[in-house]
Amino acid sequence: MNEDAPDPSEPGVPVGASPGPVPAAQPSGSTEEPAPTHRPLLERLGMASIALVLAVLFGAVAAASWVGGELFLAIMAGIGALMTAWAGFITITRG
Fold first, then answer.
1. Residue 93 near residue 38 (C-beta atoms within 8 A)
2. What is the pLDDT of residue 28?
3. How many whole angstroms separate alpha carbon 17 and alpha carbon 5?
4. Can you give the pTM of this predicted structure?
5. What's the rounded mean pLDDT across residues 9-21?
C-alpha cells in the first residue's frame, strides 16, 4: 500500500481525497506546430488500392442486394462504395 497516501479513516481527510499530490502541467517549449508532411506516393497508391478493392466489394453487395430485393441494404452499400472510392481518391490527391 502507498505509505504517502492519507489514511481515509483519519479525521479531516475528505471522502474521495486524492491519494497523493497531483503533478503540475509542464509548459511546452514551443507553441508553433510542425510543418505537415506528405505521405510517399507508394504509400498513397497502396492505401488507394485497398480503398478501391473495398469499394468494389461494397458495389458487389449493393448489386446483389438490389437483385435480391433488399432496397435499403442496396442503398446503404452503394453509399459505402461511393464514400470508400471518394476516400481513396482524396488519399491520392491530398497526400
1. no
2. 62
3. 9
4. 0.60
5. 62
Q: Which three cell numbers stand for residue 60?
A: 458487389
Question: CA distances (Å), 33 to each of 21, 39, 85, in order?
Answer: 31, 18, 31
Q: What is the largest CA-CA distance in the chain?
A: 74
Could you give the CA distance from residue 12 to residue 28 in angstroms, rounded to a whole number?
A: 37
**Full DSSP string of 25-73:** PPPPS--PPPPP-PPPHHHHHHHHHHHHHHHHHHHHHHHHHHHHT-HHH
- Ranges of each domain in the chain: 50-94
pLDDT digits (tens, 9 = 90+) for 29-82: 667 777 778 889 999 999 999 999 999 999 999 999 999 999 999 999 999 999
Count the alpha carbons within 13 Å of 45 in the hemisphere toward its beta carbon.
3
